[in-house]
Amino acid sequence: MSSDFETYEQDFAVLTAEITGRIGKVPKLVGDEKKQMVANVEKQLEEARELLEQMELEVREIPPQSRGMYSSRMRSYKQEMGKLEADFKRSRIAYSDEVRNELLGDDGNSSENQRAHLLDNTERLERSSRRLEAGYQIAVETEQIGQEMLENLSHDREKIQRARERLRETDANLGKSSRILTGMLRR
């Protein structure tokens, strides 16, 4: 059983070496050659995934006492596969940038346009920053004014409560005086 696994390992090693070489060539090619190379790499990556699946099935068939060594090999192969896919993705992004530039007619003279565009964006950002700072200042001032108003209202409330208390005391005193006068009148 391990001989099948080792055969798959050898096939995987050869295949990943070919894929690595082709991924390195992708950014250097142009036109149809590049498209063909990308398609070939995609096919080979699919083959490598299938080989990994076969290897996993073989590992499951191996007795548990010797499975650990093969499991660690599988983890390293999966990591290698992930690295290959990431490299291919970066290579394709470079490829798609070139295709986009070809389609849009960017021929390298756009650096001045890009620079002007960046300067415009920088100016807009600076204006926005100034507006944000001014808005922040207004918010701080509004908060201070609001806090002062709350303090004034608090003082006014205390004055009103003291006046109301005095009114109650005066009302109580008037009631007392009224009862005393009424008592005096009856006598």
Automatic annotation (TrEMBL):
GN (gene name): Vti1a
Gene3D superfamilies assigned to the protein according to its UniProt record, in alphabetical order: 1.20.5.110, t-snare proteins
Record GO terms (molecular function): SNAP receptor activity; SNARE binding
Alphabetic keyword roster: Coiled coil, Golgi apparatus, Membrane, Protein transport, Transmembrane, Transmembrane helix, Transport
Similarity comment text for this entry: Belongs to the VTI1 family.
Chief site of localization: membrane
Record's subunit section: Interacts with distinct SNARE complexes that contain either STX5 or STX6. Interacts with NAPA and, to a lesser extent, with NAPG. Identified in a complex containing STX6, STX12, VAMP4 and VTI1A.
GO BP term, pick one: Golgi to vacuole transport
Compositional bias segments (type: Basic and acidic residues): 114-126
Region Disordered: start-end pairs: 103-126
All copies of domain T-SNARE coiled-coil homology, residue ranges: 117-184
The protein, known as: Vesicle transport through interaction with t-SNAREs homolog 1A
Stored Pfam families: V-SNARE, V-SNARE_C
Classification via PANTHER family: VESICLE TRANSPORT THROUGH INTERACTION WITH T-SNARES HOMOLOG 1A, VESICLE TRANSPORT V-SNARE PROTEIN VTI1-RELATED
Places the protein is found: Endomembrane system; Golgi apparatus membrane
Topological category with respect to the lipid bilayer: Single-pass type IV membrane protein; Single-pass membrane protein
Coiled-coil positions: 31-61
GO CC terms, sorted: cytosol; endoplasmic reticulum membrane; ER to Golgi transport vesicle membrane; Golgi membrane; late endosome membrane; SNARE complex
Tagged with keyword Signal: no
Species name: Glareola pratincola
UniProt-listed CDD domains: SNARE_Vti1a (cd15891)
